[in-house]
Amino acid sequence: MHFAQERQATILTRLDRDGRVVSAALAEELEVSIDSIRRDLHELEAVGALQRVHGGAVRPLAGKARFLDRLEEDEPAREAVAARAAELITDGQLVAVGGGTTAVELARALAPELRATILTSSLDVALELRAHERVTVDVLGGRLDRASQTIVGAGPVEQLRAVRPDLCVVSPCWLDLEQGVTLRDRAEAEVMRAMLERSRRVAVIATAAKLAATGPYVVAETKRIDVLVTDAPAAEYAALGIEVVRP
To answer: What Cα–Cα distance (Å) separates residue 210 from each residue in 4, 62, 115, 125?
Structure first.
């Protein structure tokens, strides 16, 4: 296949079907060079048709890139999901909480009588809990990533090796049945992976808008999830043995 327009149409078809494409596989299938595929991906990204990642591309990233912009959005579903997820946290637990707008809502929704320790990479989560006298707040130390408003770097990853949280609460950018939990930012994803690896149980909190979509950086496979709190129909997740909790 020699015409760029035909190749790009095929690329978009594969992307729509699979959610992601791999450059090497496309080059073999279309019988062109890797450089040709890279140019195609570059042109398609320029018009917003896809998002390039290492080794290929994924569907265009949905939602606003900046955390602060997303936080300002009025989303009742987010509050409902967070309120239901707050019920998962019980007295005496050490709970690891990452960044994300739903995680901030979770912090706001914690019961006033709760006695627990929240370990977080999110300054916004920590600030929401500053008036909660019975919750101990431990903040990971490192560099502030302004896009995600979370603490990132080698420091937080190393600190997480010394703890064993009872529960990890993840507010992902996206959740897909096949691709799993994904985030927009690489540095944030590295810290979240370490957080999940050290935790006994994992709860994902996601509104319907975040399901059946994927981003460039994988945090965990779907099978790693123990509990999914969502307002969306999620029978396919329940079929995998995941406990599905709805508001």
So the answer is: 32, 9, 30, 20
Q: Are residues 54 and 132 in the same domain?
A: no
The whole domain housing 27 covers: 4-58
82 beta partners:
none
Task: Give me the residues paired with residue 96 across strands.
Answer: 119, 168
Alpha helices in 129-185 (DSSP H): 154-160
User: H-type helices in the chain, by residue range?
Assistant: 4-18, 23-30, 34-46, 67-71, 76-86, 101-109, 123-128, 154-160, 186-198, 235-238
State how far the Cα of 82 lies from the Cα of 207, in Å rounded to an integer.
9
Sign of the CA dihedral running 52, 54, 56, 59: negative
Quick: pLDDT tens for 166-187: 999 999 988 989 889 999 889 9
DSSP code at position 222: G
Tens digits of residue pLDDT in 82-107: 999 999 999 999 999 999 999 999 99
| CATH number of the structural domain spanning residue 81 | 3.40.50.1360
Question: For the chain, which residues score pLDDT lower than 50?
Answer: 1
